[in-house]
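Holo prediction. Input below; ligand is uracil.
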Amino acid sequence: MRLDKFICKSTDLNKHDAVMCIHDGSVLVNGASVLDESVQVHENNTITLNGQPLMARPFRYLMVHKRSQTICSNVDEAYPSLFSGLNIERTSELHVAGRLDADTTGLVLVTDDGRWSFDIIRPQKHCEKTYIVGLSQPISQEKVNTLVEQFSNGLQLQGEKKLTRPAMLEILSPTESRLTITEGKFHQVKRMFAAVGYRVVKLHREKIGQVVLDIEEGTWRYLTAWEVLSFNHTE
Ligand code: URA
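Structure of the complex:
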């Protein structure tokens, strides 16, 4: 990671103050002064600030149950950030691994480990995400098989060249379905249903990979070690 990020992760300094310390020569990497904040460092380097050895805090991996009318950004904008009202320290260091729309509820994975989150969201990973979808009008019994097949064969989304990857649609009731997709295009679920003539009025993410949402809306917990490592097992 960059030297300035390492300083922030091992002290209470913000980025500006970390850069100032680097520029004034207070930071040594393996005994040598380094004045460039963008230099890459790792755990087995010895890094000191004013002679004191620094140790980066361990990465954090969280499950957050996002409420509706909140956004997956660290700061409040038109809607409050999903972190508002949650008792989580140093939220500016965190980012989400796969955003949800403001009106979507459910599972959001949050971390300060950029490699881990990139590995989940990179398109080649084909990580499964499962949603409960509410529709404005019912799916008639005669259409069920055709729709399941259309989602499985791939849909042509507006503005996209390629069909969507095979998706698994399970009809739970005339207006409620469970959909599992392995992509993360912008508004993907809403656009998939729009492609077959339905409007999504409720959307909730219940699962990413093997990680299942199991906490109350508006709360969070740390992921278990098994949950963190579970993303290494699928390609
Ligand atoms: N697909 C959508 O359309 N919206 C979301 O929030 C997530 C997936």
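Helices lie at 3-10, 15-23, 114-121, 144-153, 188-195, 225-230. That is the main takeaway for now.
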